[in-house]
Amino acid sequence: MRVMLKNLATLTGASGITALAGLASLALNTRGLGVESFGVLSLILAYTALFAGVATFDVWQPIVRLGVRAPRALGLILSAGIILDIFAAFAATLAALLGSVYLGGWIGIGEDYIWLLQIYAISLLFGIVGTPKGYFRLIDRFDILAQYQVMLSLVMLFSSFILWWVEEKIVLYVMVFATIAVIYKISLMVRMLIELQKNDVRLMSPYSSLRGRRVFKMMLKNSASTSLVSTFATSRRQVALLIVGGLLGGAAAGIFAAAASLASAFAKFSNLVFQVIFKEFVQAAKRFDPKLWHRKIMRLTAVAALVAAFASIVGLPIGSLVLPTVLGNHFIASVPVFSGLFAAECIHLAFLHLNPVIQNKVGPKALIPIAAAGLGIFVLIAIPLAHSWGVIGVALAIVAANAMMALALTVLADQLLRRSILTREV
Predict the structure, then answer these.
(1) Over the stretch 80-139, which tens digit does the pLDDT of each residue have?
(2) The pTM is what?
(3) Which of 85, 96, 287, 296 has its CA 20 to 30 A from that of 280?
(4) CA–CA distance from 10 to each of 2, 37, 65, 123, 137 (Å)?
(5) How far is CA 295 from CA 74, 288, 412, 413, in A?
């Protein structure tokens, strides 16, 4: 518990600095670009992020899970993770480049900006960060992740300040942001290799032995399932923005993206909590009696749901105070959109702890139908609501999808924990 609180405090402090730097960067970017150009930039970032999510194997969770169970096979586990990262990076880049030719106009990116979309898509080729993140979380070196998180946010802030003075803005924005993304990804991988050498961990080809091939198959199986869950869960933000851009245009995308950028500051806190608790919950499930563990999880879920409901109500006055100050008066229409997205993030955070509970019992496969249904329901609701209520309708669709997923996760976790109790008694 002490280690978990230390890790949480480290990442919380880093996220606080990152959030403040992100708000300052957002203020500069919205004022420097304006509603329309900010919308185009956001669509480019969302498009590439969507393909990165679809083509990734999201290896950090399997690295933590398998690393806890088989620490002696860590070299093989990390080697398999690197191979999967490289393959995913190539697949994401190729898919994004090919898709840009056919999908650009459908998502609100005009022909004049397709080449910028392709330039940023090339940065996906260096998306080999899943394995380093998994390794640092496994060995409780959250301080390294925090350092990189802070440095990235400060570099983005400095770049946004410089770009604020430039005339041909959106072109340089895309090029500079793509360069920063590449440098960040490469430097994180290099840092992992340095730490591996210090800790005397040797990378080994998983194809050189029967055990290595088994580890690779386990990594591939676990990573593919985890990746599908992660893609379905996280891609709603990108899909939402692309729906807004395609149906309502670049200006509406700018309004939605500005609100989503503020709400994502809360999402980053959700993610850091998940990073810390994932390993702790996997270990705690082994220590506690099934009845006691079930009771603790259900109580935590009830308390978290109440806190989420209260925080969602507070979201509207927060948005009314913060948004005009940060974004400027041109983005005043983002206030109700932010309130909806903030509520959606509160719901997401409140039920985040159920993910490792379920994965520890049956693996990530059980989460795939829930995550896929959540994305499907969102798209079915979002399109008609976008036609009727505009960007606010899309935000409400995200709230509805998150609420349905939270209910499904609660029911599934309860059933699995009760089954463990019955199995123990028999």
Answers:
(1) 999 999 998 998 899 999 988 888 788 888 888 899 999 999 999 988 888 999 899 888
(2) 0.82
(3) 85
(4) 12, 36, 22, 29, 12
(5) 34, 11, 15, 12
